[in-house]
Design a protein that fits this description.
about 300 residues, alpha+beta, 9-stranded mixed beta sheet, globular
């Protein structure tokens, strides 16, 4: 019986990979981080932004939230530039690992300040290592708190009232803001890059369903839908087993718990897995949902 179950498990995993494929978007997703910044425009209906900056020690993802729509921040410092009260663009700079991105971050910051743009800065994980060479320059620009940021600290900044507001903490910082309705700024600092793919769609596989809104490895319904619309036709989904013997799409339980900010016992039941959304936005999939999607597509 055990041997039969082991064979079944392997068969299900292999079947999921064979029939779905993977979309590993080689040309786009594997470029250096400094080249993957992109323009993102979002409607803002009630003018409220919530900033959640988490340090490395917080073990949580940092977030930029507009009316329940969540943008997940990557390691380092992310600048969010508001074009109007209804649109914004953003770019992440890995100021922890990359000297080049730290230099670019300071350069962009100076330009934004000189142009009197309206913007927000959000730190995630670790942001100080490669930024330490720019302490004096940051202080001169008026970013006194940022110039003192240490490894593994949380940080948020905005200039909504015309002056620089900064907050720093060893674990986490959370701030709720009302957006000034008078913002009008047509300048684009982070133009959307374009990627030229070869005509054959068989060259690419969407890993874990493909990237969705800049977030990787979700294995979610939205990832499948978004990358299908881009033209991808081969997908890979990671399959794991719940506590009650059901098969669901996730890379592993450790990653799932980080996505969900879940600190309970693992693995969870099928019902608990399906009741939660990844980062509050992305729909989880079980074998029934996976098979339904592939039949429809």
């Amino acid at each position: 019986m055990k041997k039969g179950k082991k064979f079944l498990n392997r068969f299900l995993v292999i079947t999921a990979i064979f029939f779905s494929g993977v979309f590993h978007q080689v040309n786009a997703n594997e470029l250096p981080k400094s080249e993957t910044a992109f323009l993102h425009l979002t409607n803002i209906t009630n003018g409220e932004i919530v900033l959640k900056s988490s340090s490395f020690n917080a073990k949580r993802r940092s977030r930029f939230i507009l009316n329940g729509t969540i943008e997940i921040a990557k390691r380092g410092l992310t600048i969010y530039h508001l074009n109007t009260a209804n649109t914004f663009e953003y770019k992440n700079f890995d100021t922890h690992e990359s000297e080049e991105e730290a230099a670019e971050f300071v350069k962009v910051l100076k330009t934004l300040k000189d142009n009197k743009a309206t913007y927000i800065i959000l730190a995630h994980d670790s942001a100080a290592k490669s930024l330490q060479n720019y302490t004096a320059e940051l202080k001169k620009l008026g970013f006194v708190v940022l110039s003192k940021i240490a490894s593994r600290q949380a940080y948020v900044m905005h200039n909504f009232n015309g002056a620089i507001f900064e907050k720093l903490d060893d674990i986490a910082v959370e701030t709720k803001l009302s957006i000034p309705l008078s913002i009008t700024d047509k300048k684009i600092y982070f133009p959307k890059p374009s990627y030229d793919f070869e005509p054959s769609i068989d060259r690419y596989i969407a890993h874990a369903g493909g990237e969705v809104n800049g977030v990787k490895s979700t294995n979610s319904l939205e990832a499948l839908n978004q990358n299908y619309k881009k033209g991808f036709r081969m997908f890979e989904l990671d399959i794991i087993e719940t506590s009650d013997g059901k098969y669901v799409a996730a890379h592993d339980w450790g990653m799932w718990s980080r996505f969900m900010e879940y600190d309970g016992d693992l693995p969870v039941s099928h019902a608990k897995f399906m009741s939660r959304k990844i980062y509050g936005d992305y729909t989880t999939l079980d074998m029934a949902g996976i098979n339904k999607w592939f039949i429809e597509h």
